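Supplementary Methods. Inverse-folding protocol.

Structures were first reduced to a discrete structure-token string of length 693. This string, shown here, constituted the complete conditioning input.
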């Protein structure tokens, strides 16, 4: 495999653009991509023609506007390039077809924002994310907006939020006499996933319909030996990963790291970071490709946040930073962070933003699936806090206390054997338990779920940081003594928001009560986390930064809650079906056979002991009865829920339906443990987690 040669071979990237576009057109397009210059529509025709020729040479017959509606997934509708000419056809893509598309918007979630206008939605080309050819179709990344300009997707607010950062960060940079064409946020999303055998997967209706197991007794060998993390790859997994990388690279996705994760059957892929909207598109494509490649190998890739109880779930660490087009990373502390005022100011803005808007940041990663993860022991708790590490933590402490900062030098490491090299050690150790950790020159937001669209938290992060930048710039632009005003602002704001900084163990039992004392939010379920989005302060920040209108902000929160309710409803109905149609009858059959065995034994001789059978009969009958009564309670609870009442129904799902499902699970798992495997109707955790060789 010649990686440099095949990397990006399916992408209409810079190199291909340079080769295929007329010089002036190429220059105009790059100006839009690199410095955010308004796209000159007159070049669209030439770009479309070149794109089409290139795509056809790659075997494409169709094109599609590829977008990310509020379902959280991607959407595509394919049109062929054909245009009849006499009784023949030619292949054509016009500039207009490249720039706009008009899919029917009425079947996508809009949270009511559509009620005021027609069902017209437009997709519009996003030239900053490169088009690509996949399976005979040219994919054109687009945004999706309504006739009246309301955003109907995840990408348009993301682009708006990136624009807001660009605008405000440039003001901050100007204060320091620095100029640049563009400030972009960058993201490197580490993607966790499970791989299981397709054969076993097919037998579990819950996995197929809900993406997670709704029951299943813990397997006797879970992750306690800690031997899976970074362990040797199984041959089938290794083959899958080789194929996966090959395919990701062909789409220009810079897949860099692959390894086994903590839980059995769990793995990770981390790409090299890119500009946020490109990183988001690539991650959407990555998730799709992971599933497809797995299928080709007779495997299934599970992207759900918590497919299995009792072992780790999957997240998607959102590594986030900001840099200028000439390569200055605003979060790089440099060798002497104490003397790097720009860094300190940027850091202060982030600390302030995260504290002020912890509610919406938490809400941005809330989903029915991620609720099983946040607050469980492998993931950060549902409380937002910031970890700064030893070095920057000590610097911030010194600033807040008005003390002199004692510079911490990076140490050199050695294992004490002369043959082994001396290696530079990071100034900071890792803290894996913090939801928002400073990791050298970026922040790692660890709450995001594995199947989520990466846009969600980045829209919020960009918006709230842009807002803090704006306030700082407003205050400092007029300052007489800039240095003094800046130091004063930094100290004042760090003091005011010091409560959000927590450098200790975020998983420990002391943190929750401590966080409560500090007044930090701790919204454990989506139903409890999302309603903060309706608070005026949390709407206005989006409005101020031009990311959402009030109606859009409300519509999005509505959709998130609606979606949550729908997902839990599907899970509850699936569980009821599996229990009524399979589990209760299977256990009943087993009990009947045990009874027959007892009767047969006693017919032979009533002194033959039957305690084993009788004990099982008793226990299983009790559990089965309990399960039957829970079935009735769950059905009654679901009947009372009115989905149109968004808040009460989501509350009922979180606080009535989920607890009932968990109680049912206890009975089911107890029965699974003592039911003969000949009778148990579904693959167990052992079958699911250990059948890939
Ligand atoms: P780990 O956190 O697992 O030790 P790294 O720190 O090397 O690994 O990087 C993790 C992820 O962070 C990678 O996807 C990497 O590309 C990304 N990353 C590194 N620098 C930046 C940056 N400036 N902005 C955004 N993401 C970054
Ligand atoms: Mg990491």
């Amino acid at each position: 495999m010649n990686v440099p040669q095949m990397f990006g071979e399916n992408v209409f990237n810079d190199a291909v653009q340079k080769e295929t576009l007329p010089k002036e057109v190429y220059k105009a397009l790059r100006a839009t991509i690199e410095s955010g210059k308004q796209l000159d529509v007159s070049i669209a025709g030439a770009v479309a023609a070149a794109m089409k020729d290139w795509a056809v040479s790659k075997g494409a017959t169709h094109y599609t506007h590829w977008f990310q509606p509020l379902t959280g997934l991607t959407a595509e509708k394919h049109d062929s390039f054909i245009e009849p000419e006499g009784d023949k056809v030619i292949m054509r893509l016009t500039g207009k077809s490249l720039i706009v598309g008009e899919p029917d918007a009425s079947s996508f979630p809009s949270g009511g924002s559509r009620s005021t206008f027609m069902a017209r939605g437009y997709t519009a080309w996003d030239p900053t994310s490169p088009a690509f050819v996949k399976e005979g179709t040219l994919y054109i990344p687009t945004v999706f907006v309504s006739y009246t300009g309301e955003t109907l997707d995840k990408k348009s607010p993301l682009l708006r939020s990136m624009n807001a950062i660009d605008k405000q960060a440039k003001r901050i940079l100007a204060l320091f006499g620095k100029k640049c064409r563009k400030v972009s946020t960058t993201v490197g999303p580490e993607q966790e996933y499970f791989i299981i055998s397709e054969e076993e997967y097919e037998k579990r209706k819950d996995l197929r319909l809900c993406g997670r197991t709704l029951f299943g007794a813990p397997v006797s060998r879970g992750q306690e030996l800690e031997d899976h993390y970074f362990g040797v790859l199984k041959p089938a997994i290794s083959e899958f990963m080789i194929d996966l990388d090959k395919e990701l690279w062909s789409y220009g996705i810079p897949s860099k790291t692959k390894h086994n994760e903590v839980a059995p059957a769990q793995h990770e892929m981390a790409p090299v970071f890119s500009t946020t909207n490109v990183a988001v598109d690539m991650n959407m494509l990555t998730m799709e490709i992971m599933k497809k490649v797995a299928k080709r190998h007779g495997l299934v890739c599970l992207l759900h946040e918590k497919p299995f109880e009792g072992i780790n779930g999957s997240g998607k660490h959102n590594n986030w930073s900001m840099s200028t087009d000439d390569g200055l990373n605003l979060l790089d502390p440099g060798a002497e962070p104490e003397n790097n005022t720009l860094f300190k100011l940027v850091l202060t803005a982030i600390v302030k933003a995260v504290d002020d808007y912890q509610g919406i940041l938490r809400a941005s990663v809330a989903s029915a699936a991620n609720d099983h993860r946040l607050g469980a022991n492998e993931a950060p708790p549902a409380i937002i806090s910031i970890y700064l590490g030893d070095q920057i933590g000590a610097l911030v402490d010194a600033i807040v206390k008005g003390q002199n900062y004692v510079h911490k030098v990076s140490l050199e490491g050695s294992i004490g054997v002369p043959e082994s090299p001396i290696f530079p050690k990071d100034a900071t150790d890792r803290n894996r338990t913090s939801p928002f950790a400073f990791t050298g020159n970026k922040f790692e937001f660890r709450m995001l779920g594995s199947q989520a669209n990466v846009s969600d938290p980045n829209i919020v992060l960009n918006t709230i940081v842009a807002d803090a930048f704006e306030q700082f710039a407003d205050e400092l632009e007029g300052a007489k003594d800039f240095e003094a005003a800046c130091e004063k602002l930094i100290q004042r704001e760090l003091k005011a928001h010091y409560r959000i900084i927590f450098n200790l163990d975020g998983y420990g039992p002391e943190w929750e009560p401590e966080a409560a004392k500090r007044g930090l939010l701790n919204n454990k379920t989506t139903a409890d986390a999302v309603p903060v989005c309706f608070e005026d302060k949390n709407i206005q920040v989006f409005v101020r930064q031009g990311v959402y209108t009030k109606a859009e902000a409300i519509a999005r929160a509505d959709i998130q809650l609606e979606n949550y309710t729908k997902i839990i409803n599907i899970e509850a109905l699936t569980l009821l079906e599996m229990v009524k149609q399979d589990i209760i009858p299977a256990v009943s059959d087993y009990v009947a056979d045990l009874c027959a065995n007892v009767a047969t034994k006693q017919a032979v001789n009533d002194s033959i002991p039957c305690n084993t059978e009788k004990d099982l009969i008793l226990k299983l009958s009790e559990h089965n009865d309990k399960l039957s009564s829970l079935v009735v309670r769950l059905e009654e609870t679901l009947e009372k829920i009115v989905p149109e009442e968004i808040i009460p129904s989501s509350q009922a799902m979180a606080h009535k339906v989920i607890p009932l499902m968990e109680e049912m699970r206890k009975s089911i798992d107890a029965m699974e443990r003592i039911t003969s495997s000949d009778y148990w109707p579904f693959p167990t955790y052992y079958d699911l987690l250990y059948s890939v060789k």
